[in-house]
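User: Sequence for Translation initiation factor eIF2B subunit beta below. C-alpha coordinates please.
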Amino acid sequence: MPDIQVLVNDFVSKLRKRKIEGSDVTAMLTAELLRSVISQQPTTSGAAALVEAVKSVGEQLIAANPVELAVGNIVRQVLHIIKKEDFSLVTNATGGLKLSAEASDEEIFEEENQQISSTSTVDGRFLLRPSLLHVLLDQLPDSATACQTSALEDISEGKGKSVEKSARNWKLKHDVIKAVNELIEDLNTCHELIAEQAVELIHHNEVILTLGRSRFVFEFLKAAKEKKRSFHVFIAEGAPKYQGHVLAKELSAKGLKTTVITDSAVFAIISRVNMVVLGVHAVMANGGVIAPIGSNMVALAAKKHAVPLVVVAGVHELCSLYPQNPEVSLNEIGSPSELLNFGEFSDCMDYGVGSSSPLLHVVNPVFDYVPAELISLFVTDVGAYNPSYIYRLIADYYSPDDLSPQKPAT
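Assistant: C-alpha coordinates for Translation initiation factor eIF2B subunit beta:
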Protein backbone atom coordinates (compact mmCIF):
# COMPACT_ATOMS: atom_id res chain seq x y z
CA MET A 1 0.00 0.00 0.00
CA PRO A 2 1.43 3.43 -0.93
CA ASP A 3 2.47 5.86 1.77
CA ILE A 4 -0.54 7.78 3.03
CA GLN A 5 1.20 11.13 2.70
CA VAL A 6 1.72 10.45 -1.02
CA LEU A 7 -2.03 9.89 -1.42
CA VAL A 8 -2.79 13.05 0.56
CA ASN A 9 -0.36 15.16 -1.49
CA ASP A 10 -1.82 13.85 -4.74
CA PHE A 11 -5.37 14.64 -3.62
CA VAL A 12 -4.34 18.11 -2.40
CA SER A 13 -2.70 18.81 -5.77
CA LYS A 14 -5.86 17.81 -7.66
CA LEU A 15 -8.01 20.01 -5.45
CA ARG A 16 -5.76 23.03 -5.96
CA LYS A 17 -5.72 22.54 -9.73
CA ARG A 18 -9.52 22.08 -9.79
CA LYS A 19 -9.15 18.61 -11.29
CA ILE A 20 -11.72 17.42 -8.75
CA GLU A 21 -14.94 19.42 -8.68
CA GLY A 22 -18.52 18.81 -7.62
CA SER A 23 -19.79 17.86 -4.20
CA ASP A 24 -20.61 14.23 -5.10
CA VAL A 25 -17.21 13.27 -6.51
CA THR A 26 -15.32 15.30 -3.91
CA ALA A 27 -17.23 13.75 -1.00
CA MET A 28 -16.67 10.21 -2.27
CA LEU A 29 -12.93 10.64 -2.84
CA THR A 30 -12.50 12.38 0.53
CA ALA A 31 -14.25 9.54 2.38
CA GLU A 32 -12.10 6.93 0.61
CA LEU A 33 -8.92 8.85 1.45
CA LEU A 34 -9.86 9.18 5.12
CA ARG A 35 -10.62 5.46 5.24
CA SER A 36 -7.06 4.83 4.03
CA VAL A 37 -5.72 7.24 6.67
CA ILE A 38 -7.54 5.36 9.43
CA SER A 39 -6.60 1.91 8.14
CA GLN A 40 -2.88 2.79 8.14
CA GLN A 41 -2.92 3.97 11.73
CA PRO A 42 -1.29 1.56 14.23
CA THR A 43 -3.64 -1.01 15.70
CA THR A 44 -2.85 0.34 19.16
CA SER A 45 -4.07 3.83 18.24
CA GLY A 46 -6.88 5.08 20.41
CA ALA A 47 -9.65 7.52 19.61
CA ALA A 48 -7.46 10.56 20.27
CA ALA A 49 -4.82 9.37 17.78
CA LEU A 50 -7.44 8.67 15.10
CA VAL A 51 -9.02 12.09 15.62
CA GLU A 52 -5.66 13.85 15.32
CA ALA A 53 -4.75 11.93 12.16
CA VAL A 54 -8.07 12.76 10.48
CA LYS A 55 -7.89 16.40 11.58
CA SER A 56 -4.35 16.78 10.25
CA VAL A 57 -5.27 15.43 6.82
CA GLY A 58 -8.59 17.28 6.80
CA GLU A 59 -6.98 20.66 7.39
CA GLN A 60 -4.67 20.08 4.43
CA LEU A 61 -7.58 19.17 2.15
CA ILE A 62 -9.71 22.13 3.24
CA ALA A 63 -6.84 24.58 2.72
CA ALA A 64 -6.25 23.20 -0.80
CA ASN A 65 -9.70 24.33 -2.01
CA PRO A 66 -11.90 25.99 0.64
CA VAL A 67 -14.75 26.41 -1.85
CA GLU A 68 -15.27 22.64 -2.06
CA LEU A 69 -17.22 22.53 1.19
CA ALA A 70 -18.00 18.83 0.79
CA VAL A 71 -14.41 18.08 1.85
CA GLY A 72 -14.87 19.65 5.27
CA ASN A 73 -18.32 18.09 5.57
CA ILE A 74 -16.95 14.56 5.14
CA VAL A 75 -14.02 15.23 7.48
CA ARG A 76 -16.45 16.34 10.20
CA GLN A 77 -18.67 13.32 9.58
CA VAL A 78 -15.70 10.97 10.00
CA LEU A 79 -14.68 12.76 13.22
CA HIS A 80 -18.25 12.32 14.44
CA ILE A 81 -18.06 8.61 13.60
CA ILE A 82 -14.82 8.15 15.58
CA LYS A 83 -16.21 9.88 18.67
CA LYS A 84 -19.51 8.06 18.40
CA GLU A 85 -17.87 4.62 18.15
CA ASP A 86 -15.49 5.43 21.00
CA PHE A 87 -18.39 6.56 23.19
CA SER A 88 -20.26 3.39 22.32
CA LEU A 89 -17.32 1.21 23.39
CA VAL A 90 -16.88 3.15 26.64
CA THR A 91 -20.60 2.84 27.38
CA ASN A 92 -20.57 -0.90 26.73
CA ALA A 93 -17.48 -1.35 28.90
CA THR A 94 -19.07 0.65 31.71
CA GLY A 95 -22.24 -1.39 31.42
CA GLY A 96 -20.16 -4.59 31.61
CA LEU A 97 -18.42 -3.43 34.77
CA LYS A 98 -21.77 -2.58 36.33
CA LEU A 99 -23.14 -6.01 35.49
CA SER A 100 -19.98 -7.63 36.86
CA ALA A 101 -20.31 -5.66 40.11
CA GLU A 102 -23.94 -6.68 40.42
CA ALA A 103 -22.97 -10.29 39.81
CA SER A 104 -20.28 -10.08 42.51
CA ASP A 105 -22.84 -8.76 44.99
CA GLU A 106 -25.11 -11.66 44.19
CA GLU A 107 -22.27 -14.15 44.67
CA ILE A 108 -21.43 -12.63 48.07
CA PHE A 109 -25.08 -12.82 49.10
CA GLU A 110 -25.31 -16.47 48.00
CA GLU A 111 -22.08 -17.27 49.85
CA GLU A 112 -23.44 -15.72 53.04
CA ASN A 113 -26.63 -17.75 52.65
CA GLN A 114 -24.57 -20.91 52.26
CA GLN A 115 -22.61 -20.05 55.40
CA ILE A 116 -25.83 -19.54 57.35
CA SER A 117 -27.26 -22.81 56.08
CA SER A 118 -24.10 -24.65 57.21
CA THR A 119 -24.60 -23.58 60.84
CA SER A 120 -26.01 -25.92 63.46
CA THR A 121 -29.20 -25.24 65.32
CA VAL A 122 -29.40 -25.63 69.08
CA ASP A 123 -32.67 -24.92 70.79
CA GLY A 124 -33.90 -22.99 67.81
CA ARG A 125 -30.83 -20.72 67.78
CA PHE A 126 -28.22 -20.46 65.01
CA LEU A 127 -24.64 -21.09 66.17
CA LEU A 128 -21.71 -20.61 63.78
CA ARG A 129 -19.21 -23.44 63.78
CA PRO A 130 -15.95 -22.09 65.25
CA SER A 131 -12.91 -22.33 62.99
CA LEU A 132 -10.00 -24.32 64.26
CA LEU A 133 -6.94 -22.25 65.22
CA HIS A 134 -4.42 -24.29 63.18
CA VAL A 135 -6.59 -23.87 60.07
CA LEU A 136 -6.54 -20.11 60.44
CA LEU A 137 -2.78 -20.11 60.95
CA ASP A 138 -2.26 -22.26 57.85
CA GLN A 139 -4.28 -19.77 55.78
CA LEU A 140 -2.17 -16.75 56.84
CA PRO A 141 0.81 -16.29 54.43
CA ASP A 142 4.19 -15.20 55.79
CA SER A 143 5.51 -11.73 54.91
CA ALA A 144 7.71 -12.90 52.01
CA THR A 145 4.94 -14.91 50.45
CA ALA A 146 2.53 -12.01 50.86
CA CYS A 147 4.85 -9.56 49.08
CA GLN A 148 5.50 -11.99 46.25
CA THR A 149 1.82 -12.66 45.80
CA SER A 150 1.04 -8.94 45.78
CA ALA A 151 3.72 -8.25 43.14
CA LEU A 152 2.45 -11.06 40.91
CA GLU A 153 -1.09 -9.73 41.21
CA ASP A 154 0.05 -6.21 40.20
CA ILE A 155 1.95 -7.53 37.18
CA SER A 156 -0.95 -9.70 36.05
CA GLU A 157 -3.36 -6.83 36.56
CA GLY A 158 -1.14 -4.49 34.51
CA LYS A 159 -0.85 -7.03 31.71
CA GLY A 160 -4.58 -7.57 31.82
CA LYS A 161 -5.27 -3.87 31.48
CA SER A 162 -2.76 -3.59 28.61
CA VAL A 163 -4.33 -6.49 26.74
CA GLU A 164 -7.80 -5.11 27.37
CA LYS A 165 -6.77 -1.66 26.09
CA SER A 166 -5.18 -3.13 22.95
CA ALA A 167 -8.29 -5.18 22.24
CA ARG A 168 -10.49 -2.15 22.76
CA ASN A 169 -8.37 0.00 20.40
CA TRP A 170 -8.43 -2.75 17.79
CA LYS A 171 -12.21 -2.97 18.01
CA LEU A 172 -12.50 0.82 17.82
CA LYS A 173 -10.48 0.94 14.60
CA HIS A 174 -12.48 -1.96 13.16
CA ASP A 175 -15.81 -0.32 14.01
CA VAL A 176 -14.72 3.07 12.63
CA ILE A 177 -13.62 1.57 9.30
CA LYS A 178 -16.91 -0.34 9.11
CA ALA A 179 -18.87 2.88 9.74
CA VAL A 180 -16.83 4.77 7.11
CA ASN A 181 -17.58 1.98 4.63
CA GLU A 182 -21.27 2.48 5.39
CA LEU A 183 -20.81 6.21 4.80
CA ILE A 184 -19.25 5.52 1.39
CA GLU A 185 -22.13 3.18 0.54
CA ASP A 186 -24.59 5.91 1.53
CA LEU A 187 -22.80 8.34 -0.80
CA ASN A 188 -23.20 5.83 -3.62
CA THR A 189 -26.92 5.38 -3.07
CA CYS A 190 -28.07 8.78 -1.80
CA HIS A 191 -29.39 9.84 -5.21
CA GLU A 192 -31.69 6.80 -5.22
CA LEU A 193 -33.14 7.67 -1.81
CA ILE A 194 -33.74 11.24 -2.95
CA ALA A 195 -35.38 10.11 -6.18
CA GLU A 196 -37.83 7.84 -4.31
CA GLN A 197 -39.52 10.93 -2.86
CA ALA A 198 -40.28 12.45 -6.27
CA VAL A 199 -43.62 10.68 -6.59
CA GLU A 200 -44.93 12.41 -3.46
CA LEU A 201 -44.05 15.87 -4.76
CA ILE A 202 -44.56 15.77 -8.53
CA HIS A 203 -48.07 15.22 -9.90
CA HIS A 204 -49.69 14.91 -13.33
CA ASN A 205 -49.65 17.82 -15.76
CA GLU A 206 -47.36 19.98 -13.65
CA VAL A 207 -44.74 22.39 -14.94
CA ILE A 208 -41.33 22.14 -13.27
CA LEU A 209 -38.54 24.72 -13.57
CA THR A 210 -34.87 24.06 -12.90
CA LEU A 211 -31.51 25.70 -13.60
CA GLY A 212 -28.38 24.16 -15.10
CA ARG A 213 -27.65 20.51 -14.38
CA SER A 214 -27.58 18.56 -11.13
CA ARG A 215 -27.33 14.79 -10.82
CA PHE A 216 -29.85 14.84 -7.99
CA VAL A 217 -32.32 16.88 -10.07
CA PHE A 218 -31.90 14.52 -13.02
CA GLU A 219 -32.52 11.41 -10.88
CA PHE A 220 -35.42 13.14 -9.11
CA LEU A 221 -37.22 14.01 -12.35
CA LYS A 222 -36.38 10.68 -13.98
CA ALA A 223 -37.87 8.78 -11.04
CA ALA A 224 -41.12 10.73 -11.34
CA LYS A 225 -41.27 9.91 -15.05
CA GLU A 226 -40.69 6.20 -14.35
CA LYS A 227 -43.67 6.29 -11.96
CA LYS A 228 -45.88 7.34 -14.88
CA ARG A 229 -46.01 11.02 -13.93
CA SER A 230 -46.62 13.29 -16.91
CA PHE A 231 -45.13 16.77 -16.56
CA HIS A 232 -43.27 19.47 -18.47
CA VAL A 233 -39.77 20.68 -17.50
CA PHE A 234 -38.44 24.17 -18.25
CA ILE A 235 -34.65 24.37 -17.97
CA ALA A 236 -32.78 27.65 -17.63
CA GLU A 237 -29.56 27.03 -19.55
CA GLY A 238 -27.22 28.09 -16.74
CA ALA A 239 -24.81 30.42 -18.52
CA PRO A 240 -21.88 30.62 -18.91
CA LYS A 241 -21.28 26.85 -18.63
CA TYR A 242 -24.68 25.99 -20.18
CA GLN A 243 -25.10 22.79 -18.20
CA GLY A 244 -28.85 23.13 -18.77
CA HIS A 245 -28.29 21.99 -22.36
CA VAL A 246 -26.82 18.73 -21.07
CA LEU A 247 -29.77 18.16 -18.72
CA ALA A 248 -32.25 18.88 -21.51
CA LYS A 249 -30.69 16.18 -23.69
CA GLU A 250 -30.70 13.68 -20.83
CA LEU A 251 -34.33 14.29 -19.89
CA SER A 252 -35.60 14.28 -23.48
CA ALA A 253 -33.80 10.95 -23.99
CA LYS A 254 -35.91 9.61 -21.10
CA GLY A 255 -39.11 10.75 -22.79
CA LEU A 256 -39.72 13.90 -20.76
CA LYS A 257 -41.23 16.98 -22.37
CA THR A 258 -38.44 19.56 -22.04
CA THR A 259 -38.02 23.23 -22.96
CA VAL A 260 -34.75 25.17 -22.72
CA ILE A 261 -34.94 28.88 -21.89
CA THR A 262 -32.37 31.58 -21.34
CA ASP A 263 -31.61 32.59 -17.77
CA SER A 264 -33.08 36.05 -18.36
CA ALA A 265 -36.43 34.47 -19.34
CA VAL A 266 -37.07 33.00 -15.87
CA PHE A 267 -39.27 35.88 -14.68
CA ALA A 268 -41.24 35.74 -17.93
CA ILE A 269 -42.01 32.03 -17.57
CA ILE A 270 -42.36 31.63 -13.80
CA SER A 271 -46.10 32.39 -13.74
CA ARG A 272 -46.70 29.11 -15.61
CA VAL A 273 -44.62 27.05 -13.22
CA ASN A 274 -45.99 24.85 -10.40
CA MET A 275 -42.70 24.07 -8.68
CA VAL A 276 -39.00 24.97 -8.87
CA VAL A 277 -36.44 22.19 -8.24
CA LEU A 278 -32.80 23.14 -7.70
CA GLY A 279 -29.61 21.25 -7.04
CA VAL A 280 -27.03 22.99 -4.85
CA HIS A 281 -23.34 23.06 -4.08
CA ALA A 282 -23.73 23.23 -0.28
CA VAL A 283 -26.37 23.77 2.40
CA MET A 284 -25.27 26.12 5.18
CA ALA A 285 -26.10 25.73 8.88
CA ASN A 286 -28.72 28.49 8.75
CA GLY A 287 -30.67 26.81 5.94
CA GLY A 288 -29.33 29.01 3.14
CA VAL A 289 -27.67 27.34 0.16
CA ILE A 290 -24.68 27.89 -2.09
CA ALA A 291 -25.92 27.14 -5.60
CA PRO A 292 -24.87 27.70 -9.24
CA ILE A 293 -24.89 31.28 -10.43
CA GLY A 294 -28.39 32.46 -11.34
CA SER A 295 -30.08 30.42 -8.59
CA ASN A 296 -30.89 33.47 -6.47
CA MET A 297 -32.67 35.08 -9.42
CA VAL A 298 -34.75 31.93 -9.86
CA ALA A 299 -35.53 31.84 -6.13
CA LEU A 300 -36.62 35.50 -6.12
CA ALA A 301 -38.89 34.89 -9.10
CA ALA A 302 -40.44 31.87 -7.37
CA LYS A 303 -41.02 33.87 -4.18
CA LYS A 304 -42.60 36.73 -6.10
CA HIS A 305 -45.13 34.39 -7.72
CA ALA A 306 -45.64 32.13 -4.67
CA VAL A 307 -44.12 29.11 -6.40
CA PRO A 308 -42.63 26.54 -3.99
CA LEU A 309 -38.85 26.10 -4.24
CA VAL A 310 -37.61 22.57 -3.51
CA VAL A 311 -33.89 21.94 -2.96
CA VAL A 312 -32.58 18.40 -3.51
CA ALA A 313 -29.35 17.69 -1.65
CA GLY A 314 -27.43 14.82 -0.09
CA VAL A 315 -26.45 14.79 3.58
CA HIS A 316 -22.82 15.25 2.50
CA GLU A 317 -23.81 18.70 1.20
CA LEU A 318 -25.03 19.84 4.62
CA CYS A 319 -22.39 22.16 6.04
CA SER A 320 -21.92 23.10 9.71
CA LEU A 321 -20.61 26.57 8.76
CA TYR A 322 -22.52 29.84 8.46
CA PRO A 323 -22.34 32.03 5.34
CA GLN A 324 -21.48 35.15 7.35
CA ASN A 325 -18.24 33.60 8.64
CA PRO A 326 -15.57 35.96 7.24
CA GLU A 327 -12.94 33.20 7.21
CA VAL A 328 -14.96 30.96 4.92
CA SER A 329 -14.65 31.41 1.17
CA LEU A 330 -18.05 30.70 -0.34
CA ASN A 331 -17.42 31.73 -3.91
CA GLU A 332 -14.78 31.71 -6.60
CA ILE A 333 -14.24 33.58 -9.83
CA GLY A 334 -14.27 31.56 -13.02
CA SER A 335 -12.15 32.07 -16.08
CA PRO A 336 -12.95 35.20 -18.15
CA SER A 337 -12.69 33.02 -21.26
CA GLU A 338 -16.08 31.52 -20.38
CA LEU A 339 -17.64 34.94 -21.02
CA LEU A 340 -15.44 36.59 -23.63
CA ASN A 341 -13.09 35.45 -26.36
CA PHE A 342 -9.76 37.00 -25.49
CA GLY A 343 -8.77 37.35 -29.16
CA GLU A 344 -11.80 39.51 -29.94
CA PHE A 345 -11.50 41.74 -26.85
CA SER A 346 -7.73 41.92 -26.40
CA ASP A 347 -7.62 45.57 -27.40
CA CYS A 348 -10.12 46.47 -24.64
CA MET A 349 -8.03 44.60 -22.12
CA ASP A 350 -4.88 46.57 -22.89
CA TYR A 351 -3.67 48.83 -20.16
CA GLY A 352 -4.90 52.42 -20.35
CA VAL A 353 -2.52 55.28 -20.98
CA GLY A 354 -0.86 56.27 -17.71
CA SER A 355 -2.90 53.71 -15.85
CA SER A 356 -1.88 50.44 -14.21
CA SER A 357 -5.26 48.75 -14.68
CA PRO A 358 -6.95 47.40 -17.82
CA LEU A 359 -9.85 49.23 -19.43
CA LEU A 360 -12.06 46.11 -19.37
CA HIS A 361 -12.72 43.92 -16.35
CA VAL A 362 -14.40 40.51 -16.62
CA VAL A 363 -16.01 39.09 -13.45
CA ASN A 364 -17.34 35.55 -13.62
CA PRO A 365 -18.63 34.37 -10.19
CA VAL A 366 -19.39 30.66 -10.03
CA PHE A 367 -21.94 30.52 -7.19
CA ASP A 368 -24.96 32.34 -5.79
CA TYR A 369 -26.23 32.46 -2.22
CA VAL A 370 -29.93 31.73 -1.72
CA PRO A 371 -31.23 32.65 1.78
CA ALA A 372 -33.36 30.20 3.74
CA GLU A 373 -36.50 32.35 3.56
CA LEU A 374 -36.69 31.74 -0.21
CA ILE A 375 -36.65 27.95 0.17
CA SER A 376 -39.81 25.92 0.80
CA LEU A 377 -38.48 22.39 1.33
CA PHE A 378 -35.28 20.34 1.44
CA VAL A 379 -35.39 16.81 0.02
CA THR A 380 -32.44 14.74 1.27
CA ASP A 381 -31.49 11.09 1.35
CA VAL A 382 -32.72 10.92 4.95
CA GLY A 383 -36.09 12.60 4.38
CA ALA A 384 -37.73 15.95 3.59
CA TYR A 385 -37.29 18.91 5.96
CA ASN A 386 -38.08 22.58 6.15
CA PRO A 387 -35.14 25.04 6.35
CA SER A 388 -35.57 25.68 10.09
CA TYR A 389 -34.77 22.01 10.82
CA ILE A 390 -31.47 21.93 8.93
CA TYR A 391 -29.30 22.86 11.89
CA ARG A 392 -30.72 20.00 13.99
CA LEU A 393 -30.17 17.60 11.09
CA ILE A 394 -26.55 18.74 10.78
CA ALA A 395 -26.02 18.16 14.51
CA ASP A 396 -26.95 14.48 14.03
CA TYR A 397 -24.21 13.90 11.45
CA TYR A 398 -21.32 16.20 12.29
CA SER A 399 -18.78 16.42 15.07
CA PRO A 400 -19.32 19.50 17.26
CA ASP A 401 -15.58 20.19 17.10
CA ASP A 402 -15.28 22.48 14.12
CA LEU A 403 -12.19 22.43 11.93
CA SER A 404 -10.58 25.83 11.65
CA PRO A 405 -11.49 27.17 8.19
CA GLN A 406 -8.48 28.60 6.41
CA LYS A 407 -8.41 31.42 3.93
CA PRO A 408 -7.33 30.49 0.40
CA ALA A 409 -3.72 31.27 -0.34
CA THR A 410 -3.20 34.58 -2.10
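The CA atoms of residues 191 and 216 lie 6 Å apart.
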